[in-house]
Amino acid sequence: MSDLLEGLGAAWVLLISGDRELWAIIGLSLWVSGAALAISTVVGVPLGAWLGLRSFHGRELVATVIYTGMGLPPVVVGLFVYLLLSRSGVFGQLGWLFTPRAMVVAQTVISLPLIVGLTITAVEGVGVALRDQLRALGATAGQIARAVLWEARSGMIVALVAGFGSIISEVGAVMLVGGNIEGSTRVLTTAIVLETRKGAFNQALALAFVLLGLTFALNAIALHLQGRLMRRGT
Asked: What angle do CA 137, 138, 140 make, to 5 degrees?
């Protein structure tokens, strides 16, 4: 218990002291995960909404692939991205390996299936009765789609929160493709691993509390936005 309290105190000291290394790590963590979430959102939400609204031959296979992707081990994703970006890989000429861009790619691959899959579930969760009622009132396909998506908005926010949570706390993939290079690719999770291996448990706990606090704050913002959207719909 004393170690936890010391770690919490150390985290507070690091934050208020303006420790440059810590803030650089926090900034990079937010940039990498934020960029990956933005890409996954722009691609995943429309794709998930379209799959949730449409019925076509082979849809079940596509959904199965997406749901399988939701459970991919991050370290396996990191390995595949590493091989693709290595010098002998398909995209080796880009020179992205051991850079933040490679980390964004890995985190995007991790979060995209989650956002697509949960968006599909949110859209499918809207009762068929609503669609039938709107159709009976003469609504067009576009109007029905907009109404269904609006009703599924809460589930879509959950999808984004889950997607962000899956990557901000991820360590295996970013360690493989980023290399945990000081001042270049070191993020909160990889820094925690490094400090733990060094036996600097107070520093590791401090970073862990910073990560927990950051995740808590961002989730609180998302839930606040979710509540506002729900109130607007009533």
From this structure: 130
CA distance 126 to 124: 5
In this predicted model, what pLDDT tens digit does every residue of 111-156 receive, in sequence order? 999 999 999 998 888 867 777 787 788 887 788 788 888 888 888 8
Q: 100-124 and 59-69 are packed helices; what angle lies between their axes, rounded to 10 degrees?
A: 130
From CA 54, how far away is CA 165, in angstroms rounded?
A: 28
**Second CATH level (architecture) for the domain 2-233:** Orthogonal Bundle (1.10)
Query: What is d(CA 16, CA 192) in angstroms, rounded to the nearest whole number?
Result: 19
* Range of weakest confidence among 21-25, 60-64, 184-188: 21-25
Enumerate the domain spans of the chain.
Answer: 2-233
**Structural tokens at position 27:** 């900034």
What CA–CA distance (Å, rounded) separates 8 from 111?
29
